[in-house]
Amino acid sequence: MKITRNILPAIAILLAGVAPLAIAQTPRTPAQQRRAAMAAKEAEARAATPYKSAEIMSLGTPKLVEILKDANATEFAKAKACQRLAVVGDKTAVPALATLLANPKLSHYARFGLEPISDPSANAALRDALGDLKGNLLIGVINSIGRRKDPEALDALAKLMHGDDHDVAEAARAALGRVRSP
Predict the structure, then answer these.
(1) What is the pLDDT of residues 59-78, one digit of tens each?
(2) Which residues constitute the domain of residue 85?
(3) What is d(CA 97, CA 112) in angstroms, rounded to the nearest whole number?
(4) Would you state the pLDDT for residue 45?
């Protein structure tokens, strides 16, 4: 009887420490359940991709462009390729990066990869995207043009500054200021 009395409080203490962890990890609300399902799906996609993060971050431009063009590559792999292209990218990467400018999930990564490329084709790709994009994607491209200080985009930015979308007009106004400043 004495052993049972001594063990029960110890078991209760152990369970008290574990139970809150189990409860905290169980998604309760629909939003938590969706986030948990999305996290599980992303983890599964990362595990299934033939491209691993560390491997991607050591590749050269040709292999990175190959990943961007690969229909079976995950968004994660493409995002990592864009990040690496910001460091090692050259004009051969511009067409592949430009195709991602219209992708809502990868546009930011594509712009991140394009901005440091010193070749004029990067400016041209961003200018070409001005006519194809709307909303936040367009604002992002306008911001990239401003960061690159592309003087050939002045006329296009001026037109956007007088457009109907207030946010786009503000972004164009700011980009014009950056392009014109020394």
Answers:
(1) 999 999 999 999 999 999 99
(2) 38-118
(3) 9
(4) 63
